[in-house]
Amino acid sequence: MRLILAGKLNKLIAADLGISMRTVEVHRANVFAKMAVRNGVDLARLFEGTGLPPEEA
């Protein structure tokens, strides 16, 4: 989730973590579903008013 919030593309996340791009796509979809958002911008908005950095949320 931190990498999504950092604005990284699936391809870059996959390279950073040493996993396939498809795996990143599945994880991203799961995060969006669990957090009830449709995209990374909506996800970032969830943390906007909390005062917590995304790493601690």
Explain what this protein looks like in three dimensions:
This protein has 57 residues and is mainly alpha-helical. The chain has a single domain (2-48), classed as Arc Repressor Mutant, subunit A (Orthogonal Bundle). Helices cover 63% and strands 0% of the residues. It contains four helices and no strands. Helix 2 crosses helix 3 (21-35). The longest helix is centred in the middle third of the chain and has 15 residues, at 21-35. The chain is globular and about 35 Å long. The mean pLDDT is 89.
How many distinct folded domains? Answer: 1
How many H/I helices? 4
**DSSP helix fraction:** 55-70%
User: Based on the structure given, which CATH architecture is correct?
Assistant: Orthogonal Bundle
For this structure, the CATH topology is Arc Repressor Mutant, subunit A
**Apparent shape:** globular
Name given to the CATH homologous superfamily: Winged helix-like DNA-binding domain superfamily/Winged helix DNA-binding domain
Most strands sheet = none
Portion in strands? under 5%
Rounded average pLDDT: 89
Low confidence ranges: none
Look at the structure and give the CATH class: Mainly Alpha
Category by helix and strand content: mainly alpha
Rg (C-alpha, Å): 11 Å
> How far from one another are the termini?
10 Å
One letter per element, helices H and strands E, the order comes to HHHH
Count of strand segments: 0
